[in-house]
């Protein structure tokens, strides 16, 4: 029996056809249960919260959710057994008729297999196009509202998930909330977009090794700050980036 795939719906414990209100309520419930600020004695809290944040970022955005649904459908199609074009018990018809019958069955089987492969490639292309069309946010562009807890901002892509590196963005000493983005040090494409409330922190996982830049907007006074960090191969602990406090106007 094929192993069942795990989806973002599983991570949030909702059905695939759940409306956004149900997804949002499930996310808030899991945040209250697993948020690291409220589970400091639970070593798995940060890992679980990272999965929950990632799943909510995908399912709260219509385009990313559509691409995820297509991926689920493609996985289901790939797991269906493909019938062999060769009959297990060939018909006993002699001569040319038997050969023609076998050739016809072989041809139909090959056509079915080619159509299946083509459908999988098409679905993969649609998913790549959906990811490419995602808006790239900047820290100087303020969303209409902000969430309650530190998390990835809904509607923005979560990129570069091919490594084992992690970085803890520490805003504990700051009385201002921040909107932070992680970039390659010499790149202009935001890999992660994160909201962090005052007196809080956030850990980003699965980053490849390399040099990075964090650009963050102090939401209390509007100032824009930048800092850099490096992730090395084989690094087992999170790099820690301490954010500067807002300069003025924060009670």
From TrEMBL:
Domain J: 7-72
PROSITE patterns, alphabetized: DNAJ_2
A Pfam family that the UniProt record links to this protein: DnaJ
The protein, known as: J domain-containing protein
Positions of transmembrane segments: 106-125
Keywords in alphabetical order: Membrane, Transmembrane, Transmembrane helix
InterPro entries for this protein: DnaJ_C4, DnaJ_domain, J_dom_sf
Keyword Transmembrane: yes
Organism per entry: Neisseria dentiae
Keyword GTP-binding: no
Source superkingdom: Bacteria
């Amino acid at each position: 029996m094929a192993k069942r795939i795990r989806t973002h719906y599983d991570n949030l414990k909702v059905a695939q056809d759940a409306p956004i209100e149900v997804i949002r309520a499930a996310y808030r419930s899991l945040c209250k249960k697993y948020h690291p600020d409220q589970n400091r004695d639970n070593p798995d809290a940060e890992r679980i919260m990272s999965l929950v944040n990632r799943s909510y970022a995908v399912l709260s955005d219509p385009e990313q959710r559509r691409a995820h649904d297509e991926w689920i459908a493609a996985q289901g199609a790939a797991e269906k057994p493909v019938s062999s074009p060769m009959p297990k018990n060939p018909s006993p018809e002699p001569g040319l008729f038997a050969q023609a019958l076998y050739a016809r069955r072989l041809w139909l089987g090959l056509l079915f297999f080619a159509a299946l492969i083509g459908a999988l490639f098409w679905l993969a292309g649609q998913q790549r196009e959906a990811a490419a069309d995602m808006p790239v946010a900047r820290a100087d562009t303020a969303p209409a509202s902000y969430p309650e807890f530190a998390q990835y901002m809904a509607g923005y892509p979560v990129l570069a998930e091919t490594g084992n590196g992690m970085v803890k963005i520490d805003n504990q000493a700051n009385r201002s909330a921040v909107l932070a983005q992680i970039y390659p040090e010499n790149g202009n494409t935001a890999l992660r977009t994160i909201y962090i409330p005052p007196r809080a922190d956030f850990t980003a996982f699965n980053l490849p090794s390399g040099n990075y830049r964090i650009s963050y907007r102090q939401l209390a006074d509007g100032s824009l700050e930048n800092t850099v960090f490096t992730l090395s191969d084989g690094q087992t602990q999170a790099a820690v980036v301490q954010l500067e406090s807002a300069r003025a106007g924060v009670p």
